[in-house]
Amino acid sequence: MHNPKAIELADKILAKSAKEFDAEWVSKNLKALREMAREEGDPAVIKILRLAYEHIDENGDFKIGFSADEDEDGEEEEGLITDLEYLLILVQRSEREKSKEEIKEMKKLLLSLK
């Protein structure tokens, strides 16, 4: 993302959801962020943000296991950052090739969870 207001909104979502996850508030702000992404014309970001807020609307959270790690027994454990934090970092850095790849992977995961 290049829009400073979009980056600022993503930072605001990150900061507030780190303290307390309010599904309705996060969803509303992801929708606003998606509209800003539309202005930039990045279809991958537009799609991932839509899938993210739809998931939140349906499930009340954004715990999709994307940023989780596996322990020695193959059990999933919490990652260092939440899935929402990871998503927003990817969106903010969406012009980077690695971020684009990870956005595509997250999109596949979200589609498989529907």
Describe the 3D structure:
It is a single chain. The protein has one domain. The protein contains five helices and two strands. The chain has helices spanning 4-19, 23-40, 43-59, 83-92, 97-112, and strands at residues 69-70, 76-77. The protein has a two-stranded antiparallel ribbon. The model is unreliable at 70-76 (pLDDT under 50).
Summarize the structure.
Helix content is 68%, strand content 4%. The chain is mostly helical.
Q: What are the salient characteristics of this protein?
A:
globular; two-stranded antiparallel sheet; 114 residues; 68% helix; single chain; 5 helices; 2 strands
Topology (elements, then pairings):
Blueprint: H1 4-19, H2 23-40, H3 43-59, E1 69-70, E2 76-77, H4 83-92, H5 97-112
Antiparallel strand pairs: 1-2
Helix pairs in contact: 1-2, 1-4, 2-3, 3-5
Main sheet overview:
2 strands, antiparallel
Number of domains: 1
Quick one: overall form?
Answer: globular
Please state how the strands of the largest beta sheet are arranged side by side.
Answer: 1-2
